[in-house]
Known about the structure:
Largest interface: A-B, 98 and 94 residues
Strand order of the largest sheet of chain A: 6-7-5-4-8-9-10
Order of helices and strands of chain A: HEHHEEHEHHEEEHEHEEH
Helix content of chain A: 25-40%
Strand content of chain A: 15-25%
Number of strands of chain A: 10
CATH superfamily of the largest domain in chain A: NAD(P)-binding Rossmann-like Domain
Number of helices of chain A: 9
CATH architecture of the largest domain in chain A: 3-Layer(aba) Sandwich
CATH class of the largest domain in chain A: Alpha Beta
Number of domains of chain A: 2
Radius of gyration of chain A: 20 Å
Oligomer: homodimer
Structural class of chain A: alpha/beta
Amino acid sequence: MSIDRDLAGVRRIPEATVVRLPVYQRILAELGRAGVPTVSSELLAGLARVNAAKVRKDLSLLGSFGTRGTGYDTAFLLEQIELALGVDHDWPVVVVGIGNLGRALVNSAGFSSRGFRIAALFDTDPAVVGQQVGPAVVRDMATLADLAAQERAAIGVVATPSAAAQEVTDQLIGIGVRSILNFAPTVLTVPAGVLLRYVDLSIELQVMSFYLTRLPAADPPGVLAPIRSVGLTPPAPGEDAPAGPT
Amino acid sequence: MSIDRDLAGVRRIPEATVVRLPVYQRILAELGRAGVPTVSSELLAGLARVNAAKVRKDLSLLGSFGTRGTGYDTAFLLEQIELALGVDHDWPVVVVGIGNLGRALVNSAGFSSRGFRIAALFDTDPAVVGQQVGPAVVRDMATLADLAAQERAAIGVVATPSAAAQEVTDQLIGIGVRSILNFAPTVLTVPAGVLLRYVDLSIELQVMSFYLTRLPAADPPGVLAPIRSVGLTPPAPGEDAPAGPT
DNA sequence: CGATGTGAAATGCTTCACAGCA
DNA sequence: TGCTGTGAAGCATTTCACATCG
């Protein structure tokens, strides 16, 4: 109750921070490619459109990686963030539902990042099964169990229609998948210990609708965060960006 | 500035609540179709996988729509939520970038909801321009300005590669779009007063990676883990559950 | 009696402000 | 001197607990 540290010397990391880490990661990678050797919290904050104090607090939760008077070593900080995120691990991903969305996901930049490897693609449509999509051939959903014999997938992406989502999820968990990323607009039930996240277009649209009706006067937060951030543009922290991430 | 009420007698609605409203909306619509006349905060909370006190607090921010001892009238509450969300308005949506992702979005359930109407689709690829996608024919991005002459789009969806996202965003804002939903994995800059939200697959994957590395030790081969009382299920913009299907 | 609506407490996150180190 | 790292203040959100009312 009192101690805020886990087994290592690292503090518990708030969800809000975890969501920002990939943003920093991406910016640092870009700065690294641009040959920028060190970054100040101010610069990083400007590029990520957040408060500099927040950047420092976020990073300090991972450890003390900066140099006073100088800033953070770009490459080193990137490394530490990736370490914290665990993207140095191998995370086999299974995608179920190879419609337009599934294809978009498989071909997206998200998967080309280190760590995330397409382990297999599944669908029930005979017209789709057997097709080459991205790096893999689509398999019949009925053969899902066969995958388990080969390897343990870490992440299951559900890109099926809502009606099939729960059943698919159950099957994924059945072969040992410990985390589910759900794109179907429906609430899923998973056993305790299984991670579950949602990405939902219609919620995004409705939230925008809400703020649009209140635009003239509203002043919601202007944070950058995937999925559930909203806001009027932040008070433009300082200046523009040298090399914005592509 | 000081009072916590806006022009009507309704309190300022926290972002966190706004994100949950669409979830309640979906559940209520489903319950309505199933013929359930009234809902208690407890039932609604169960279906939305949140705390009942939170449901009551959320709903009380919109007004006092419940009946003590009974609960909320399903149809009436649904109506009030949709009113608050502003989905009764007409929100013309422009989608730019009609690749797999754009197609998936256009055909998704999100757009069939009331209020969101595809105003136009744009792409630069000559092979795509002219194609019928969903309810509209894809136009050449070069003709974007022509749209402005016809009508003012409210929401711009950016589904292009990262490299084009900022330029596309600028053009959308140029024709009067006041809110941008960005699917490209890049930080965008918009003028103050323009709403901006991000949906980013690679961030989702990295967040999962983070939690996966901290999940209690993996269950040994074969055995179903007895699992601890509360699993880490990081907060997500929840979904609803249709009445009963598996 | 049962379920809402809501002050007040608890928790969590953000921002401030500055000591301290390179 | 410049910039990090961080206690403490300031806000926001969640949860509690119960008066209140149909």
